[in-house]
Structures are given as structure tokens and as C-alpha cells.
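User: I've been going back and forth on whether these two constructs are worth ordering. Before I decide, could you fold them both?

Assistant: Sure. I'll take them in the order you sent them. The first construct and its C-alpha cells:
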Amino acid sequence: MAVRDKGNTLDRIIRSAESEFSIKGFEGANIENIARDAGVTKQLVYHYFRTKEQLYRATLETVSEGMVIVEQAINLAENLPPREAVAGLVNAIIDDYILNPSYAALTLDQALHHGEHITASSRFIPTMRAAIDQGFRPMLEKGIKSGVFRPGLTPELTFWMIFHLATASFLNGKVISESSDIDVASEEGIDRWREATVDFVMHALAA
């Protein structure tokens, strides 16, 4: 029972921390707010996590664990033709950001800090490597071999170009909306961004 209670307490702290960090960033986040939202004392937070930075790293690790992109990419590569697989990957990335609003905020916060909280031992690094090596690389190579995609594409670079294009409406939504009169935060705007991204990627990869 004690182990279960500790696990529940840690889960509440991490969930509260994810909300606080995604709203205020690392610099602006307040441990007292996190403790209050989690229903624990500030002292207990520091008992489990010695510093705010340690809690932030733990939060990023938990978020990384929740990413389903590896399983989705592998499943798409194994079960769909290359074009449909890549289109499915774009949709999976966008859907993941829709379902997890904190992803965009934490991504921007890490960009602000030059990724200093994502260490070499972080689960995020092997997660993304696996998504590329086990999922995207096979679908890209299959497409090149079958003549659907043009040769000379580098899996790592191509994956990250697709990833950043797919997530741009979440990371730069305000600027895009204000400068284009297309509300990319709305359901209709997200659908337009999704369709445009898939179309752009298909033309970029086409043989």
C-alpha cells in the first residue's frame, strides 16, 4: 500500500509540474503552486525531487514516455504502402500534439534553453532515434526502392523536416494566424494545416 501511495503521489506531482511548466516555463514555474495543485507540501516535493531542475527533468522524461510516435511509425511502416505510411506519420504527429497540449509549450521552453535539460541519458533521445530507425527509415527506403520516392533522401534530416513542418502550427500558431488570417488553432485551421502539410511532404518526396 505504501508503495502504491508513493506512486500516486509522484504521479500527482508530475502531472501538476507538467501543467505548471507548460504554462510558465522552467524559469517562471513555482514549486509552491505545483505542491498546492498536487495536494502535497512543498517539502514533500523537495523530498522526492531535490531541485526544480530535477523535477523539470523528471517531467520531461514522463512526457517522453507518453509519446506514442515509435509504435505508430513502426506500425505504419509495416502495414501501409510508403505514401500512405508517411501521410499517416504526419497525421499521427499532429494528433499527438492535439491530444497533448503541453508538448508545444515544453518544446518551446526547451528551445529557449537550448535543450539543456534533455541530457544524453534522456528517454527522449532514444525515443526519437527509434522512431526514425525502426519506423521512418523503413517506409522511406521502401518508397525509394519502389520508385515512389526520389533517391538521395536522408532519413534523419527528412524525418525532422516533416516533424517540424507538422508541428509548426502548434509552435508558431499565433504568428501564422496573425500573418495569414487562417486560425490554425481552430479545428478547421488545424485540418487545413494537416492537408497542406501532407500535400507538401508528398510533393517533396515524390520521385
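The second construct, handled the same way:
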Amino acid sequence: MAILGTHRAFELDDPRLQPLLVPRLPDTPEHARVRQFIVHHYETLGWHVELDSFQDETPFGKKTITNVIVTHNPKAKRRLVLSAHYESKYFKDFEFIGATDSAVPCAIMMDIAQTLNPFLAKGKDHITLQMVFFDAEEAFVEWTAEDSLYGSRHLAEKWEKTNQLDSIDVMVLFDLLGFREAQITNYFQETSILYHRLEMLASRLAKQDLLETHSTKEDGQSLGSFFNSSSFLAFKGHYLEDDHQPFSQRGVNILYIFGYPDPYHHTVQDNASIIDPSVVRNLAILFRCFVLEYLGTTIK
């Protein structure tokens, strides 16, 4: 595992993160540039790239919504899916960046693909890594069943009709990550074994000194565990409205990596200043290792 922890910490100018730290309102030129940045990253790695583009009615009129789906081996029969939304929410009173929501999750996914790409090529043919960047998770005005989850609702329905949901082992959804105090609970009973596997993996990595123990921010505060299985949100994942919901309602297993609390959620403060690079690096290392172990890929 040591080789997976040798990459430098995520700094705020990290080439996988910095281009995402901009407003990313759906169907705008800035949003299109971010989408192309993501697409180019995976095309350079040699992954299969699919754009799931459609039009939908919103409170601001008809908008073009585009999910980005990237797959290491599209011929594989089974998939481990990592996912996050890549757009940011509209606020009329201020410019919203959405660093934790969800620029950091997208950057972590891009890091995983880049770091693991040489090892994935040596992996098993029957299972592959797929990543989905959902568009328009956020409500344009106020969260309702119609004004939210545009991209994930569309893709879940599309994949249900084409029987592609059946090949998903588990969908991992990242959201609200990068803030130091946020913790992750066990949101779904159905994936408890994977949640506890993550806990044990984090413990192993810490014992091998592969995780940062202190913040790289000015205060150098000690970093605690990512995990809090006794949270009041434990096993409440089915009731939480996020991009996993259209899939969980159709029987897909969900591992929900949702940071709580996040006091900066949907505020102007959710920008680069609240990101702790040590936290982001630790999450990236943890999920690099989790993915390799899940896929049964060895490092040689």
C-alpha cells in the first residue's frame, strides 16, 4: 500500500482541484469548461467517456443537463461505481463555489483514476471501475421532487430501461468532503460490511504512517477519525435526498460518503479557504486503497 501514499498532498493549486473551484452553474460556459476539463482528464488516461446529455424543464426554463460517465473497461460485466455531482448551486445574492459541494469529491475521483490507472490495466476482466459525474443535483430555486437531482433521476431511469443497473455491485457517492470536522457515518445497513472495511482500512493505513495526522492549515490541529458509526444519521441513507436516491429506490447498493456536519453548506464560505489539504489527501489515499482491494487488484 505504501506506493499509493507517496503522492504529494492536495494543495489548493492541485491541477485536479484548482480548475473546479469556480462557479459551475448548469448549462453555462463556465460549467462547460469544467465538464471538458473532466472529460479531457479521462480521455488522456485512455478511459471510455460517455456524455449523457438531455434537456429538462427547470424554474429557469429549459436547460441542457449533461452527466459524464467514464469507464476503465466498458466490456466488463460488473462495475464498482464512484460518483459525485460536478455542478454548483445558483444563489442570486452571492457567487457560490461549492468547494466541499462537490469540487473536492470530483478531484478525489480524478486522483483515484490517475493514480490507479497503471494497476487497473493489470486487473481482472470481469469487473471494472466506473465513475459518474452527475449534473444538476442542486435545486435551481427550492428543493422539490421536480427541482433537484436532474442528472441522477435521468440516468437511473435510463439504466433501468437498459438493464445496466443490474451490473452495479455498489455505487459510492461522495458529497460534502474536504472540511476537517466532517465525519462519515454508516448510512446504509445493506453496505455495512463495506463501511466497516473502510474503517479497518483507515486504521491499517494509519498504523503504516500513510495518513496525515495533523492539518496542514495554520493551526496544525490534530486530525481525528473520518468515521462516526454512532451518528444519529446512521442507517438513515434511504431518507436523505441526494444523487444516490434514484438508484437506491431501484435496488442499487449504496455506500454514501457524505460528510457531516458541514457548517458552510450552501454558504459563501464554501470555498477554497475551508478545504484542509491533509484531509483531502487522506481521503484520496483511503479510497485509492479501497478501490484496489475491492477490485482484487494487486500492486507489483
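Notes on the second construct follow. Residues 178 and 275 are 5 Å apart (CA to CA). The longest strand covers residues 48-58.
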